[in-house]
Design a protein that fits this description.
The longest helix is centred in the middle third of the chain and has 17 residues. The chain has two domains: about 230 residues, Phosphoenolpyruvate-binding domains (TIM Barrel, Alpha-Beta Barrel); about 30 residues. Helices cover about 40% and strands about 15% of the residues. Helix 5 crosses helix 6. The protein starts with 5 loop residues before the first helix and ends in an 11-residue tail after the last helix. It has an eight-stranded parallel beta barrel with strand order 1-2-3-4-5-6-7-8, surrounded by seven helices. The chain is of the alpha/beta class. Bound molecules: 3-methyl-2-oxobutanoic acid (KIV) and sodium ion (NA). The site of sodium ion has 5 residues, from loops. It comes from Kaistella pullorum. It catalyses: (6R)-5,10-methylene-5,6,7,8-tetrahydrofolate + 3-methyl-2-oxobutanoate + H2O = 2-dehydropantoate + (6S)-5,6,7,8-tetrahydrofolate.
């Protein structure tokens, strides 16, 4: 199996071949997502939401993200494995950012890290990349800043924020980031960013003109009925499938249908 690298993604943009990315947080899921053929798997800090049940991504720790990353890495043969650095593990200063990124690579086994923000974290990004660690940027609706935004609505609809986003995107390219997630911004802005940088853009709620698309696994397989943003396409209705299977199991046990003779020793 030929492994996907940051170079593969760069070339895909050049060749106008779309890039796909999904999240995973555990071994078994990672195996299925890798087998399905995505180029990249993200251990998102959305683990705080879908694995741990927190309302925001802020509470998850670096140790917890490292654990999820270790589990995913064991299940992946082909995809590029990117891990989020969680809130508080890189914002305070560049030395801490580098230390967190090194732990994620060394203990977690990630192939790259993703961090949220632009010019505010310039020095941290520089430091991490100088250490030989590939960095994926993340602009737009960056969930670690939710208390500053106050809402999960579309970002950068106003000219000033759109201009800052474009200049942040150019900065991330200049710093040497290998790709960039654009979350929940107008499609025309994502298109403009994509056309103005040579590194791939991976969109979520950012329209069809990004170089690739990413979704949260639990959302795209429909495990999560409580989350229905317009950008989400559900490929399965696993919430219904799984609760149905569970209630059938309950019924089968209670009626002594399960286990039957073939299922007994
Ligand atoms: O944490 C996450 O799942 C993410 C993606 C939505 C890009 O950052
Ligand atoms: Na994230």
């Amino acid at each position: 199996i030929k492994k996907i690298t940051t170079e593969t993604l760069r070339k895909m943009k050049f060749d106008k071949e779309k890039i796909t990315m999904l999240t995973a947080y555990d071994f078994t899921t990672a195996k299925m997502v890798d087998a399905g053929g995505v180029e990249s798997i993200l251990i998102g800090d959305s683990a705080a939401n879908v694995m741990a049940g927190f309302e925001t991504t802020l509470p998850i720790t670096l140790d917890q993200m490292i654990y999820h990353t270790q589990c995913v890495v064991r299940g992946v043969q082909r995809a590029l494995v990117v891990a989020d650095l969680p809130f508080g593990s890189y914002q305070s200063n560049p030395d801490k950012a580098l230390e967190s990124a090194v732990r994620m690579m060394k203990e977690g086994g990630a192939h790259a890290v993703k961090i949220e923000g632009g010019i505010e974290i310039e020095e941290s990004i520089r430091k991490i990349i100088n250490a030989g660690i590939p960095v994926m940027g993340h602009l737009g609706l960056t969930p670690q800043s939710i208390y500053q935004f106050g809402t999960y609505k579309v970002r950068a609809k106003e000219e000033a924020e759109a201009e800052k986003l474009l200049s942040d995107a150019k900065l991330l390219e200049e710093l040497g980031c290998f790709a960039l997630v654009l979350e929940k911004i107008p499609a025309n802005l994502a298109k403009k960013v994509t056309e103005n940088i040579t590194i791939p853009t991976i969109g979520i709620g950012a329209g069809a003109d990004c170089d690739g698309q990413v979704l949260v696994y639990h959302d795209m397989v429909g495990m999560n009925h409580g989350f229905s943003p317009k950008f989400l396409r559900r490929y399965l209705d696993l919430y219904t499938e799984i609760t149905g299977a569970v209630s059938q199991f309950v019924k089968d046990v209670k009626t002594a249908d399960f286990p039957n003779q073939n299922e007994s020793y």
